[in-house]
Amino acid sequence: MAAGDVENQAELEEKTRLINQVLELQHTLEDLSARVDAVKEENLKLKSENQVLGQYIENLMSASSVFQTTDTKSKRK
């Protein structure tokens, strides 16, 4: 085997290694992107649930006499 052939073989192996590394990184990026989308969707769902629960708690508090503000000065008169 000539020195040029060995050099070409080493270059080819390096290119193959780099291509495989790029492909692996692309797959990792795709997985991370899908995960980000899933987390965004879950976040929106939880925000919506929090709004509903917040409104529910507000309604309960306004309906309960325990949480009503009282004006003690006017009651003393």
Automatic annotation (TrEMBL):
Entry annotated with the keyword Coiled coil: yes
Matches recorded under Pfam families: DUF2205
Keywords from the UniProt entry: Coiled coil, Cytoplasm, Golgi apparatus, Membrane
Matches recorded under InterPro entries: SCOC (IPR019357)
Keyword Methyltransferase: no
Top-level taxon of origin: Eukaryota
Annotated coiled-coil segments of the chain: 15-49
Membrane topology: Peripheral membrane protein
Subcellular location, record wording: Cytoplasm, Cytosol; Golgi apparatus membrane; Golgi apparatus, trans-Golgi network
Entries under Gene3D superfamilies matching the protein: 1.20.5.170
GO (cellular component) term, any one: cytosol
The protein's role, per its UniProt record: Positive regulator of amino acid starvation-induced autophagy.
Family stated for the protein in its record: Belongs to the SCOC family.
Protein name stated in the entry: Short coiled-coil protein
Lineage: Eukaryota, Metazoa, Chordata, Craniata, Vertebrata
